[in-house]
UniProtKB/TrEMBL annotation, chains A, B, C, D:
NCBIfam families: purB
Enzyme Commission number(s) of this protein: 4.3.2.2
Protein name, entry field: Adenylosuccinate lyase
Annotated family: Belongs to the lyase 1 family. Adenylosuccinate lyase subfamily.
One GO-annotated biological process of the protein: 'de novo' AMP biosynthetic process
Pathway: Purine metabolism; AMP biosynthesis via de novo pathway; AMP from IMP: step 2/2; Purine metabolism; IMP biosynthesis via de novo pathway; 5-amino-1-(5-phospho-D-ribosyl)imidazole-4-carboxamide from 5-amino-1-(5-phospho-D-ribosyl)imidazole-4-carboxylate: step 2/2
PROSITE patterns found in the cross-reference section: FUMARATE_LYASES
GO cellular component: cytosol
Alphabetical list of Gene3D superfamilies matching this protein: 1.10.275.60, Fumarase/aspartase (C-terminal domain), Fumarase/aspartase (Central domain)
Keywords, in A-Z order: Lyase, Purine biosynthesis
PANTHER family: ADENYLOSUCCINATE LYASE (PTHR43172:SF1)
Reaction(s) catalysed by this chain's protein: N(6)-(1,2-dicarboxyethyl)-AMP = fumarate + AMP; (2S)-2-[5-amino-1-(5-phospho-beta-D-ribosyl)imidazole-4-carboxamido]succinate = 5-amino-1-(5-phospho-beta-D-ribosyl)imidazole-4-carboxamide + fumarate
Length: 474, 474, 474, 474
């Protein structure tokens, strides 16, 4: 029998994320959940022998996926197969009391989601710490900002990085909010009325409530749904994937921009340690990793589309029409964002900027970018506004046309302006204005300093997260 | 020239929402924004004559869309066209100082989004108030809960409504969070560095900051971006549409379930006042409005798909590749959710349940739902567990088969069980058990009471919202 | 190291589909492709020793995925790793001449897609053959057609099935068209200009063309692209997934309708051989498989969303931003449609209808559905049209209201009409009209006969496909 | 009352497309449809007075949208409102005989779709004719092809255009196929059984068939569905939007590439006649229109997402849950593709390439691209392969590094190689090799010639389409 691995997990995701979503990992989570419920039930008065609990605990890590699958092929019921397996291993029948399948699966799947959110949180902080570092490093690196992909006004490379960083920061707030408010379904029974737990506890609602609280403590989730059916509303899953997509936005825009910069050789995602370009094409530093980040973003769009189709589609108290979708969408969306962040952090660790090339680009465009200032100076010198405007326009258009048709190969606008009596500006004056262009970055540095301060606080609050080191990527 | 109206706006959305997004409404918002900036600049020291401000204010409501469009067809620049129009009307040239087009459009569009969120908030509260009312009304209406669309366990109709209500409540929290944390772009200039405002104020960063704070006060938005480019990150738009979709989830699931119930005639969306079914088909209460709610949900999926494609696609400091998408997606998503909520509230105002039909359904299924209890009673009476199980299974399967092949037309399981000596249960005992089935709704009522209490608090905090009355729907 | 399987492949897809997409299967396809190119190059004049070809052929099935992955982790280049592995195994370096990575991967991936389309074709025919069979079996089974989920007019169950079948038939035409016109990229080189093959063959364009034709013969694909870059346009992938979604439409609508019918117990997806309902709930035939079909449809929407985002996003001659997306989307979309069709065929093999329950439903609604005819008969008898209309409306509304409030439990409209002198129709006359209702199915049978004839021809053309038997599903 | 226009229609779509989808246009289409059915019924034997037909025909163009909307607000039934309006105008009640609402609306909407497909077909041919022209013009313009956005191998600009053109050509085949095979629903009645038409014609199936054929002739659509319910399968709508998206792919990739080229100033979308860059920034030719094309592509993704959610969601014989979605999706998808093609054709009419800049780029990269050839020449000269490789790598890496750190500003690799005795190649030899680089475009020209020939044939078959001139865009 052929075995097809999950390509997102196997090529891109990391061990901790895979551990959460592995068949074996999930089975252990389920068994721990059953044991937690069982202990809670015992503490609240049900007659469950201590030895049974001990027996279950002693075998909880003995996971034989094949045996379980064999059972499922007979029963055509996945949870029943896993109950039988666990009970046979333990030699007792004390788990799953008053529980329906969804009392197990919904809670355990939510735990998987919740823990995955934590893993992602760490990596987002790690990415932001690196973005901050670069923002500081290139705080003063004067670059030509582009709008419509065309030179517009100056900024600094540090500010550009902070810009994408702030996108990610705002998405991180969404992640924080989701983690803080994430509600778990709890033990609600077949149609959500808690009938079976209430029956177990002779309709003692207080005890059932306490049992559910224990479950929440076990899961580490602080909030729960009250009114649900067989399932919790799938809008929660949509929101989850939506937050993952928001987290992908900043890195994806950053990656697109780095791909563009690589095209101009002003920056690149760099090489892995020891890697070199081919001898034939040493200039060819392919933005493979950046392209991959963009690919992950596209993948997340697809999973969000699945999630959006699940929400708002509950029939009565629910069914399993969402089951196969969630089996795919939830782990795969987390594998994708995990892979995206690993790739993104690696890019941040290896990327480089090429100040000399950047400077050439600046030199090419700066005279154009300074024409407004030049005109103001000419006017200050007593030249008529209309005259100045006319002269400058004439030379600017001439320069750009000559550059495009190949008459000239570098921007000689200042020469032309210096040679035009109408403006009355000397070459020295014009050079001074051009030199002053370096100051035309407005509040860029102050802005990025704000980003830096915010991330510094975040890093101080999450020191381990910030120190996270990614694995080697393919 | 043919004029195509926006079908979502014209057929489904309400006047307040349309006013926010109308061309005229937007132009007034823009002019008010320009005036606010102009006043701020004057207060902070720029030389702007009082009479100019007065002139702009006096003409700000004179909107001639055709004249503006004519200008745009010449300039091929929409903002320039609107500047010229406003200045010509006022007879001054004092607006838009140090501003780039995006300093106007981004902020005004965000204001449109922000106000629309407020409109939607009101309607969500109004819907929840009605769901609460129904939940109370039908608190004790015993119904057969369904999983996989098949009878499962008892619940109450009030609980079922509370279930969809809680989905909406959790989505409302997301809306609240978005409104509270929504950041506006502010006056950041062509590439985000605030260069031009800083130039205007001789690099006095403090003054530029104060100007931006004034802008925020004018908009009524408490938070702003710091590091942006020409545009704010489009992930914010994605998040906005994502929240709208989350708000649609509860109503959409409710609508699907009501469509299902209408198929069984246990409930229906009812008729408008004075409307009656056709004489030929008086039973045919088509769930047109519920179907429409589901249609709106699908539409929102499409807009979310557009939004998801915009995020993570920023090239350098930005461009207008998102422009046409946002012109469509933002208003249309709000028109869709507005129409959805209007329709949903109307459904809530007109819907009805049919207890007699519900009771027939209960009677049909209840004996099956009570077999576990019957077995337990037989065992209490001294019958062997295996014997009881065998007898009950025999009769249950027999009954269902006879119902399906038409041998019988109503559920006679109790007769069969009463007539079987193996169980030793009298007809009276069995009837008593069946009657007890009415108590098998677990915590349904307590759960819905929690929903009711939560909504009561919400309504107390938003009395006007709760009292909102929808317009007539098509 | 945890190993995460592809859940779509492992739980739902079949061995032949998995074989096409397995890592091992793909490596063999690649090696066969290299060998085919190598043989073509030799035949066209390149100096490639026969023993090298023999050596490659002798080791082509020796696939060691781990060894290849180890190589990739060093080279960070997947194709290079696979070249080295194959060459080391063969002890020669004769493959991949004049080829760039994409000359290998694009063609092999297209082959995977193309073969998968063939697998799917077979199953669609198999599904249609079964739909036809049911359409014939239930050709005359009179049912109450529903619009808006409410009883509308009569039809037959066979016609209902043919309706969903015709949806699938039209989608099958799309599949046929795609298979017939599917163009392969061929050996186009690094930027699509065939530079390297032309260099190999001293710019002999004729030979390069012949080599490409050989490649097409090897692949079994009749058409090729001429003008491409590094990659073929991704719109072809979008179209492919779009066709898969179209194929899912008929089955998905069928599955939804069967879920609805199960709620009314008029039909069900049935049980697997030997399976029975639980004793407690023998009525509970959960539509798990139908729900799963709907789930697969949702999944395909997500993959189509990914595909739609890839099209129209080619930068220059291409890059790998689509790579990770296609690694996920292409196999997973095929696994999903494969699983959908397996599940659908299984449903068709196990489903059942319950004529007695259907008849009860008909009896409940038929009097309402016949009121137009009754009025016409009354008018024929000389009663005034207005009078007749008034009387009938009165009784119809009365009946439906009494049913809803529980005054009556079966439809007694005919009794009421018979007892009303205004209409002048005897009970016998009314019974005759009602009996005539059985003929009010219009062209239902003739329509389904057309479907049957079309499928018969299809089956005759594809006898093996029609005879396809699905594997056991979970 | 505020009136919100459809932004896609009003800003971007053309009059012919708007006419098809306008409220007024649709009402006329409906009235023509009713008249066609009425005439058919009369010819087939129904008693319909000639004067009634004449009366309807005489008023069919008197469209009063407000009056109809007023009626709809009373009846809450759009079709009924339009029947009443038309009958009141004509003074007869002869239309809509034996028809249900969907017999009108489905067919008329399909006619709108079908005619829209024709409009789009024209524009696709027009776009291809222009792409062909450019491909010829720039057939020999040697450019540096880029993969991963980085210089890779030579090609020609004509070939690059043909590459995106072939994407569009293949999509055009899909459009052709859709137009040829597009099936109309016909007169199938309330649940698809044609009951009411059969009743009208005393169960004469032959006459009903003839009537439907007349309807098809009237519509100009050659194919029809046989087995449908109240509605035709919505998968047909999904396929329609999917084809529109495929058509958008080539233009969208072309637009992205032109945006990239504009960033390098190797090409631009140009200016409208008379338009000039601003004086301050004459270099700033913003790719606004290209960005818009990409925006339209994103919009179409959203509508495809809506369409994908409609397919496979039919409950029984159908309902109106798709209604609001189709009201939005169908016209808006056509407005979007119409706007996209208008914009794209305008770009093609105004775009320009800058050979001098292209040449500078080539000069910068060509030495790197020729290193393989240089090594081969050195080896021919008797230099050891290893020696040559080592020397070339040394200089290539040195050159690229010096360029990046700013030591040099133009590529001096050839100087370095000429100065290295190890290679034994004179400056003249190296220059000759470099000059030969101009021939390294492989089959680029032959490939584009194939594209040209295909489009020539297409243009010959569609002369009017090719001559289509777009309107002025905003």
């Amino acid at each position: 029998m052929t075995m097809i691995p999950n390509v997102l997990a196997e090529r891109y995701a990391t061990e901790p994320m895979k551990a959460i979503w592995s068949a074996e990992g999930r089975i252990v989570l389920e068994r721990e959940f059953w044991i937690a419920v069982m202990k809670g039930q015992r503490d609240l008065g049900l007659d469950i022998p201590e030895e049974a609990i001990a027996a279950y605990e002693s075998v909880k890590d003995q996971v034989d996926a094949q045996s379980i699958m064999d059972r499922e092929r007979i029963t055509r019921h996945d949870v029943k197969a896993r109950i039988e397996e666990f009970c046979d291993l333990a030699g007792h029948e004390q788990i799953h009391k008053g529980m329906t399948s969804r009392d197990l699966t919904e809670n355990v799947e939510q735990l998987q989601v919740f823990r995955s959110l934590g893993v992602i949180h760490t990596k987002v902080v790690a990415a932001l710490a690196r973005m901050k570092k670069h923002s500081v490093t290139w705080r003063d690196l004067f670059i030509t900002a582009r709008t419509h992909n065309v030179a517009a006004q100056p900024t600094t490379f540090g500010k550009r990085i902070a810009m994408f960083g702030e996108d990610l920061l705002v998405a991180l707030e969404q992640l924080d909010h989701l983690i803080e408010t994430y509600p778990v379904r709890g033990l609600k029974g077949a149609v959500g009325t808690q009938l079976d737990q209430l029956s177990l506890f002779d309709n003692d609602a207080e005890k059932v409530d306490q049992l559910e609280q224990r479950v929440m403590e076990h899961l580490g989730i602080k909030r729960r749904w009250t009114n649900v059916g067989q399932v919790y509303p799938r809008s929660l899953d949509t929101t989850t994937v939506s937050v993952l997509l928001a987290l992908a936005s900043g890195p994806s825009s950053f990656a697109k921009t780095l791909r563009l910069m690589a095209g101009h050789e002003t920056a690149s995602e760099g090489f892995a340690k020891g890697q070199t370009g081919s001898s034939a094409m040493p200039h060819k530093m392919n933005s493979r990793s950046c392209e991959r980040v963009n690919g992950f973003h596209t993948i997340l769009q697809g999973y969000l589309s699945m999630g959006a189709a699940l929400a708002g589609d509950q029939w009565n108290e629910g069914d399993v029409s969402c089951s196969v979708v969630r089996r795919v969408m939830l782990p795969d969306a987390f594998f994708a964002i995990d892979g995206l962040l690993e790739t993104f952090i690696t890019i941040l660790d290896q990327m480089d900027a090429y100040p000399a090339v950047i400077e050439r680009e600046n030199a090419y465009y700066l005279p154009f970018l300074m024409t407004t200032t030049i005109m103001m100076e000419a006017v200050k010198n007593g030249v008529g506004r209309e005259t100045a405007h006319k002269a400058i326009k004439e030379h600017a258009v001439g320069t750009v046309n000559d550059l495009r048709v190949g008459k000239i190969t570098s921007n000689d606008l200042l020469d032309r302006l210096a040679g035009d009596d109408r403006l009355g500006l000397s070459r020295e004056q014009l050079d001074a204005i051009l030199a002053g262009g370096q100051d035309k970055i407005g509040a860029a540095k102050a802005q990025l300093d704000t980003f830096v301060a915010t991330v510094d606080k975040l890093v101080a609050d999450n020191p381990n997260a910030a120190a996270y080191e990614p694995g080697a990527i393919l």
